[in-house]
Amino acid sequence: MSDIESLKNDLVIASRILANEEICDAFGHISVRHPVDPDRFLLARAVAPELVTSDDIIEFNLDGTAVCDDRKPFLERFIHGTLMAARPDVQSVVHSHSRGVIPFGITDTPIRPLLHSCGVLGHDVPVWDAGDVFGDTNLLISSNDMGADFAARLGNGRAALMRGHGSTVVGRSIQEAVYTAVYLDVNAQLQAEAMQLGKVKYLTDGEIDLIQPRLGDAKPGEGYDRTWQYWVRRAGLGPDAPVP
Ligand SMILES: [Zn+2]
């Protein structure tokens, strides 16, 4: 199987995982940078993640124009291209409207990692507010200008929220991006619960710095690799159930 076919397969699996883990519902999407041309990326046509198959994957330039394909694209494809243009280290992007994080995008309480598994979120999870620069909009990132402004807000981070809308995470692989999207929501849910009990003791910056490489540099069967295998099986995929 070629690199691009392999990445398309992983993109389909990732879409099914994100749906199964309730990070995406009918909305949300995941992309991966093209394995040969870093100025392009792969993203499904506008279809719910649960329904994505390999045939749905479209190739895009970083400005969001499709390469020889006139099928309906996601309106918010600009999130993916502008982030990859701003961040050469980013190989994969997940955008979702997962519900656990929404309260933190509309209040002055920031998301902060509080659990070992969530150290991947990094020191800071900023909130981007479309209204700050663009005034009243439908809140969706529907242009390269909005995408670039969001990318600037994310900076060198791993995750950022969009006020009244959702969140976006980046990864050096599809597996890392999926992991970060899942655990962003886990952290948000636990943080909301813990804040009702009292003062929360968050991870320190030093702890976060030690956790991140342990997950990212893990051997096969550890870190992102282990969670990927687990989520693949939970999504009903794997050796006994070929990728659609
Ligand atoms: Zn959205």
Category from helices, strands and their pairing: alpha+beta
Helix-strand topology string? HEEEHEHEHHEEHHH
Task: Name the assembly state.
Answer: single chain
Question: Judging from the principal axes of the Cα atoms, what is the shape?
Answer: globular
Instruction: Give the CATH class.
Output: Alpha Beta
The CATH topology is: L-fuculose-1-phosphate Aldolase
Radius of gyration: 17 Å
Protein architecture, described:
The structure is a single chain. 39% of the residues lie in helices and 13% in strands. By secondary structure, the chain is an alpha+beta fold. It has a single domain, classed as L-fuculose-1-phosphate Aldolase. It has a seven-stranded mixed beta sheet with strand order 3-2-1-4-7-6-5, with helices on both faces. Strand 1 (29-33) and strand 2 (40-44) form a beta hairpin. Helix 2 packs across helix 5. The two termini are 15 Å apart. The mean pLDDT is 95. Bound molecules: zinc ion. Residues 76, 95, 97, 140, 165-166 line the site of zinc ion.
Features:
alpha+beta; L-fuculose-1-phosphate Aldolase; 7-stranded mixed β-sheet; globular
Reconstruct the topology from this structure.
Blueprint lengths: L2 H18 L8 E5 L6 E5 L12 E5 L16 H9 L5 E5 L5 H4 L21 E2 L1 H5 L9 H11 L4 E4 L3 E6 L2 H24 L7 H12 L6 H12 L10
Parallel strand pairs: 5-6
Antiparallel strand pairs: 1-2, 1-4, 2-3, 4-7, 6-7
Task: Describe the structure concisely for a colleague.
The chain is α+β, with helices and mostly antiparallel strands and 244 residues long. It has a single domain, classed as 3-Layer(aba) Sandwich (L-fuculose-1-phosphate Aldolase), CATH 3.40.225.
